[in-house]
Amino acid sequence: MSLGISEAQLIALFLESLFWGIHFVTFISCLNTLFRDVDHGYSMHARRNFIIGASSVLLLVATFDVALLVHNILDAFIYFDGPGGATERFDNMESWNTAIRAITLLLVTMVGDGILVWRCWELHQRAWLPVIFPAVLWGTCIALGIAGLVVQATADENVNATSPVLAGIITSYWACTFVLNLATTGIIVLRLWSAERRAREVGLSDSSRARQPVTVHGAKGQSRIMDAIYTMIESGLLFTVGVFLCLVTHVALPNALFPVSDVLIQIAGIAFNLIIIRSSTRASNSTLPHNRSISLRNIGSTDEGRLSSTNDYGRPYPLRMEPTKGVNVFVETSTTSQSDEWKR
User: Fold this and answer.
1) What span, in angstroms and rounded, lies between the C-alpha atoms of 319 and 316?
2) What count of other Cβ atoms lies within 10 Å of the Cβ of residue 206?
3) Do residues 34 and 51 touch, judged by C-beta distance below 8 A?
4) What is the DSSP letter of 319?
5) Per-residue pLDDT tens over the stretch 208-263
6) Residues 238, 274: Cα–Cα separation, whole Å
7) What is the DSSP string of 56-87?
8) Whole-prediction pTM
9) Does domain 5-289 have CATH number 1.10.10?
10) DSSP summary character for residue 301
11) Across the strands, what pairs with 223?
């Protein structure tokens, strides 16, 4: 079975346009979520601005890629009248055109992977040791992407994603990107699961068990940390599966890489936005009155722990609890950042 490059480009246009619509809807919903939540403090405001900026960049780059694909389709099927038809045109696109599309794909995947590594870094209280492996993989992916662009720019003939001269570089790039997403998502989930396990240990005492629904559990006893785990797995799996399909199609059916990689550009933004949206939705279903976020700090460091939250007027109202073991947890549901720090 073979897929011609003309057919692949038409399929890419249909699929990327479809996923761009989903991307745009999630972007608007993400903005609505961020501006609806009232964050207190400079750090929360700066983090919200960072999230808005990253989401906007992903949408702008994805929109530009769709526009460039439409240009190529019109050029090949409408305006080109040379021998060989659309297939010949796609095989011999100008070097600047193929280079820009490659840069677009590289930029989106690197921004998406960089945000994932940043989340992991923030989750571990900005400690570098847990993110050394993801950071090295991220740097390797960037180096491979730049190497591919250099080869493409210096080649004597037209080079695209299916050219043999780029086969090794592209295969290595997608393999490293797949391992990076799988490993980093796993590290984040393990960190959150550790927080969930420790939180359950804190709830072993009678007094803390009585207050458990107010601290880290919702109306039905559903842990907010488990909600964060589910959100990270769902969104991480969405992008990781897309990367895996890019790797498989590049090896097994090279021309199919065009539609799959174009869809991946949209999926990167969709996955990012869904984390914000779903975290906010799950936070709004909690039992804590009028809460936007909760924080548990230095629980167990003294005889009494203190759970603090904010009411509609932005004033804290503390609740007392007596945990059985020393633990320091910080959970932010309003900006999708969930972190914990354990002190024994």
Assistant:
1) 10
2) 9
3) yes
4) E
5) 444 444 444 444 455 677 777 888 888 888 999 999 999 999 988 888 999 999 99
6) 10
7) HHHHHHHHHHHHHHHHHHHIIIII--STTHHH
8) 0.75
9) no
10) S
11) 217
